[in-house]
Inverse folding.
C-alpha cells in the first residue's frame, strides 16, 4: 500500500513544483514506483519541469471525468521506468475536478504505486482543497521570507483542520551568506514560528533554473547543491535519519587557499 | 456584426437587421437592447433598422415599448422581417455535387478564422478548417475536423482531421509544435528545441506523419 504525499505552500513561486519533481525523481532513482500528480489545472507546469510536455494526450480531468482510464493518462518518465506523471489539464479550471474525485483517484494510485506526490496549486481555494483531499501526508514548502512563512502558517492551520496533521516543512532557497549577515531569516526563526517538523533545507542554487528549463530535475545532478539537499530529503521521506546539509560558508579567501593547498 | 447574448445586429445589403432571440422573454431582449443602445448611441443615431424574432410574436404593448426605446435613440423601426425573407438568402450547398469553382487540390468546407495569437490555456475546437492569423503558444490547442493553417509559429498542440480524416494537414509559418495529431496519429515534438527552416506542412503519407517544407514548386507539382 503506497503513500499519497501532497506538496503545498499557499504562496506561489516558493518551489512546490520543483520540490515535487525532485522528490519524485529522487524516490524513483531509489527504486520506488512513483507517480507525480499535477493538480494545478489551468496553470500546469510539472510536465514542463519534467520535460514531458510533448507527451501529453490525456490529463487528470480526462481521468476523473471518465474520458479515459488512468493507465492511458499516465506518462512514463524519460529517465526512469518506474516514474510516471499524471498531468493537469491546461484548458479547463480548478472546478473541473472535485475533492471526492481526488479521493477516488488517490485510492487508485495508492494501490498501484509506492508513492504518489501531488503538486498543489498556489492559494487556498478549490485547487488546494482538491490537492489535499486524498493525501495521507503533507509537505509544506516555504522560503525564508516573512510573506511565505505567513502563508505557510495559514496552510498548516488548514491542513490540521482537514485532519492532515503533522505536516513536514521544507525551507527552500535559503542563502547562507545572507543568513550569516543577518539579512535573511534563518532556520531557527522559521521553525520558531511554524513549529513543525523540518524535512529539509534547500539552498538557493542557480543550477535549479538550468535544470527546470532543461526538464531535468536537479536531484540527478551530482554537482548541484540543491540536488544534494533533495537527495537527503528523499531519504528522509523513506524514513532514514539523515543529517542536515552543511550550509556554512568558509570564512574568507584565506580558507579557500588553505583548502586548495590541502591545509584545511 | 455586434453580438450580445440575446440580440444581434447585422448589416446586410438591404440595411441593418436586429435579431432578437425568440427563446427569451421580451423583457430580456429589451433590457439588452437598452444597454446596447446606451453604449453605441453615435453609431446607430439616425439609422433605420428592421427587426426579426423568428416565429415569436410580441404583444402590442411590447411593440410600443420597443419603438419608444428606439425612438429615444433616434433609431427608426422600419419594419419586421418574416422568416422566409431571412432564410431565403442562405445558400444550401448540395453536398453530393461539388460547387462549380471547386478544383483539384482545393479543400471545401467551412473555415474558422482566428485573428489573434492563441495563448496557453486557449482551446479552439471547430468541425471545419481553422486558420490562425497569429501564433499558437505552448499550452494552447486547436482541434479541427479539417485542416489547420497557422500563419505564425505553431508551438502548441494541433489536431487536424480530428473526426478521422487522414487526409487533413497542419501547416505553419514555423512548425515547432509540442505535439501534432492528424486523425488517429500522434507525433510529439523533439525534446530539444530545433530551428525551423520556414513554412512547413505536416500530413500523413504511407500511414506515417511527414513534415515537409512548403515551397512554390511543391504547389505546382501537386496541381499537375
Amino acid at each position: 500500500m503506497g503513500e499519497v504525499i501532497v506538496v503545498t505552500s499557499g504562496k506561489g513561486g516558493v518551489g512546490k513544483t520543483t520540490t515535487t519533481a525532485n522528490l519524485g525523481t529522487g524516490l524513483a532513482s531509489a527504486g520506488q514506483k512513483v507517480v507525480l500528480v499535477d493538480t494545478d489545472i489551468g496553470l500546469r507546469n510539472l510536465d514542463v519541469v519534467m520535460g514531458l510536455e510533448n507527451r501529453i494526450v490525456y490529463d487528470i480531468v480526462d481521468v476523473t471525468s471518465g474520458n479515459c482510464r488512468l493507465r492511458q493518462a499516465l506518462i512514463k518518465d524519460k529517465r526512469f521506468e518506474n516514474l510516471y506523471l499524471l498531468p493537469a489539464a491546461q484548458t479547463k479550471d480548478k472546478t473541473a475536478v472535485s475533492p471526492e474525485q481526488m479521493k477516488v483517484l488517490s485510492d487508485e494510485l495508492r494501490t498501484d504505486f509506492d508513492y504518489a506526490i501531488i503538486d498543489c496549486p498556489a492559494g487556498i481555494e478549490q485547487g488546494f482543497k482538491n490537492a489535499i483531499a486524498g493525501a495521507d501526508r503533507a509537505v509544506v514548502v516555504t522560503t525564508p521570507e516573512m510573506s511565505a512563512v505567513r502563508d505557510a502558517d495559514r496552510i498548516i492551520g488548514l491542513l490540521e483542520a482537514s485532519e492532515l496533521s503533522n505536516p513536514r516543512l521544507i525551507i527552500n532557497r535559503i542563502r547562507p551568506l545572507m543568513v550569516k549577515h543577518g539579512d535573511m531569516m534563518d532556520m531557527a526563526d522559521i521553525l520558531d514560528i511554524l513549529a513543525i517538523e523540518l524535512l529539509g533545507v534547500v539552498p538557493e542554487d542557480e543550477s535549479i533554473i538550468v535544470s527546470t528549463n532543461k526538464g531535468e530535475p536537479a536531484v540527478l545532478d551530482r554537482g548541484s547543491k540543491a540536488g544534494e539537499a533533495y537527495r537527503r530529503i528523499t531519504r528522509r521521506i523513506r524514513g532514514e535519519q539523515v543529517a542536515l546539509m552543511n550550509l556554512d560558508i568558509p570564512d574568507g579567501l584565506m580558507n579557500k587557499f588553505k583548502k586548495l593547498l590541502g591545509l584545511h | 456584426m455586434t453580438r450580445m447574448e440575446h440580440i444581434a445586429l447585422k448589416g446586410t445589403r438591404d440595411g441593418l437587421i436586429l435579431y432578437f432571440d425568440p427563446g427569451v422573454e421580451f423583457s430580456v431582449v429589451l433590457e439588452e437592447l437598452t444597454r446596447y443602445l446606451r453604449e453605441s448611441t453615435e453609431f446607430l443615431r439616425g439609422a433605420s433598422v428592421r427587426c426579426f424574432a423568428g416565429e415569436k410574436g410580441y404583444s402590442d404593448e411590447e411593440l410600443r415599448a420597443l419603438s419608444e426605446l428606439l425612438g429615444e435613440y433616434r433609431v427608426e423601426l422600419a419594419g419586421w422581417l418574416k422568416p422566409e425573407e431571412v432564410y431565403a438568402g442562405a445558400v444550401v450547398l448540395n453536398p453530393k455535387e461539388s460547387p462549380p469553382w471547386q478544383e483539384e487540390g482545393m479543400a471545401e468546407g467551412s473555415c474558422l478564422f482566428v485573428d489573434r495569437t492563441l495563448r496557453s490555456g486557449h482551446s479552439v475546437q471547430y468541425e471545419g478548417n481553422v486558420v490562425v492569423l497569429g501564433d499558437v503558444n505552448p499550452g494552447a490547442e486547436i482541434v479541427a475536423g479539417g485542416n489547420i493553417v497557422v500563419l505564425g509559429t505553431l508551438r502548441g498542440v494541433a489536431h487536424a482531421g480530428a473526426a478521422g480524416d487522414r487526409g487533413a494537414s497542419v501547416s505553419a509559418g514555423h512548425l515547432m509544435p509540442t505535439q501534432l495529431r492528424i486523425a488517429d496519429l500522434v507525433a510529439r515534438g523533439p525534446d530539444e528545441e530545433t530551428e525551423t527552416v520556414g513554412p512547413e506542412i505536416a500530413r500523413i503519407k504511407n500511414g506515417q506523419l511527414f513534415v515537409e517544407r512548403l515551397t512554390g514548386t511543391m504547389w505546382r507539382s501537386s496541381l499537375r
Q: What stands out?
A: Chain B has two domains: 7-97, 111-220. The longest strand of chain B covers residues 148-154. Residues 89-98, 220-224 of chain B have pLDDT under 50 and may be disordered. Residues 111-220 of chain B form a domain with the Pectate Lyase C-like fold (CATH 2.160.20.70).
